[in-house]
User: Fold this.
Amino acid sequence: MKKHHEVVAILTGIFFFFVFYSCESTNSGAGSSEVISSYNSSDSHRVGENCMNCHISNGSGDGVFSVAGTVYNESLSSPLPNSTVRIYASADEGSDPLFIIEVDAKGNFYTTENINFGEGLYTSVEGPEAEIYMESAITNGSCNSCHGVSTERIWAE
Assistant:
């Protein structure tokens, strides 16, 4: 009888482990953990694709991204890893950024931080040589929905 109780206890422990620790996120958006790209990380995928196709509320991607995209080298031939994306409240190049997003080892950047685009925000990308500013304001963070589709890829030098 003692062995029976030990077996039941072990099986119950295994059951609870799989129920509570192996479930994937349903990405409801509310209360989900922060997911932010970082230098040298290689956790991202699908370089150059529109991240917001999956990383949206109730989407199949991990996290609901507010800003995401891919940075390429100056010749637009390959991703530029470990660069930096900055988001500003104004087009004034001397202002302090509201957000700084590190670009990962695959050239992708993304964040689930809450960003209010309001009437528009301004962006820049800094590579090893220079910081390049986007001239027009953005009103959403789905960068690869335009860049690489209807306008030039995001690039830095």
In short: Helices lie at 2-21. DSSP finds one helix and seven strands in the chain. Residues 28-155 form one domain. Residues 11-31 have pLDDT under 50 and may be disordered.
